Prior knowledge:
Elements: E1 3-14, H1 18-28, E2 34-38, H2 58-70, E3 74-77, E4 80-86, E5 89-93, E6 97-108, E7 112-114, E8 127-129, H3 130-138, E9 148-153, H4 156-166, E10 174-176, H5 180-189, H6 194-206, E11 212-213, E12 216-222, E13 229-234, E14 237-242, E15 245-250, E16 252-254, H7 257-261, E17 266-267, E18 270-271, E19 284-286, H8 295-310, H9 314-318, H10 321-337, E20 353-355, E21 360-361, H11 362-365, H12 371-378, H13 390-398, H14 414-417
Amino acid sequence: MNNYSREQFDVLVVGGGPAGIAAAVRAAESxxxxxxxxxxxxxxxxxxxxxxxxxxxxxxxxxxxxxxxKAGVIVLCGKRxxxxxxxxxxxxxxxxxxxxxxxxxxxxxTGARERFLPFPGWTLPNVMGAGGLQALVxxxxxxxxxxxxxxxxxxxxxxxxAYLRQHGAEIxxxxxxxxxxRLARFGMSLMSHPGKITxxxxxxxxxxxxxxxxxxxxIAAHGEKALEGVTVSHAGRTGVIKCDYLAxxxxxxxxxxxxxxxxxxxxxxxxxxxxxxxTTVEGILCAGEPTGIGGVDLALIEGQIAGLAxxxxxxxxxxxxxxxxxxxxxxxxxxxxxxxxSELRSLPSPDTLICRCEDVPYxxxxxxxxxxxxxxxxxxxxxxxxxxxxxxxxQFLFKWNPDSVRPPLFPARVExxxxxxxxxxxxxxxxx
Length: 432
């Protein structure tokens, strides 16, 4: 039996990224007992994974991580929440321990993950998410001398390309699927966001000389045992580029599974919250990407509002509303500029795997009209990732909506499920 521990908090935050840190700090500054649980080994999330010395928000990272330490927040890193046995309690697992975490107020700051769009060859080794490759390099993967094609959409591509280049990678091409016309309108709109202009100019300097093509996307990846090259579509023409890595980024998908398991209502794929970041379940708040993809600036503001609201400091939270709205306007601008074009739906070939866990190809999924039907007949979404990769892909390809979340949220060891057998509900009907 693993070590079993219990902790009680006035405010418990799930997620140690910018939104979670901001929420925990503002709540702890009220004098209540606050905890943060996060599956990463150190707080910071993806955006601050390299520590406070890296990235355009390094000063923010240093400030907030220092405030987190000074506020006396209890940080439980390397623990992944996998179950919600009863109201006011969640369960988390570590490498060799289990935690029963009780709370009076819960702030969900579970962040987002990358969206993967299938195309022939996307399962080859060294084809990966843009953020995923950046995280690996931050964790020690050598990039020196490697040829990396960066493709997808949005400003993240430029940030990843700049980071990889700083670490010795060669970037033969950045492929942006949106049009030059949309990019030009986006550039003009930045006049009302001077801080973003500064960041953009810095990125431009960091990737000076790197070829950039709009109206461009990957249509196939090639290689025997690993990636050797990619075929690129650009303005109706195709060409092949040799490379060691392909870093793809097609927007982010909010991690809403825990919120749904807790009974929080969602709308258009995001957790529904009121002005104080409160969900439809009393005592549960949500901040950051699960309420709408908006970046680190918006996440920090929403996290602060949630932390203040969780401790009854409503007036201080309301003072942040105008700033939040300003960042939300920028998020809407990003959505309008970098929406995915319909041509990307035609990328998979009949034998392209859509569900990597269960080896389900595109041809089998085309026979079905819903996520549930495909899941029942093909096992799509029933592998270890529980639909986290193929679910968003089928949402884009077929406009399907995954319709259920059941415990455990992640594959869990049997001994963990046996730790409190009376709290694990009997599963009937569809097998997960």
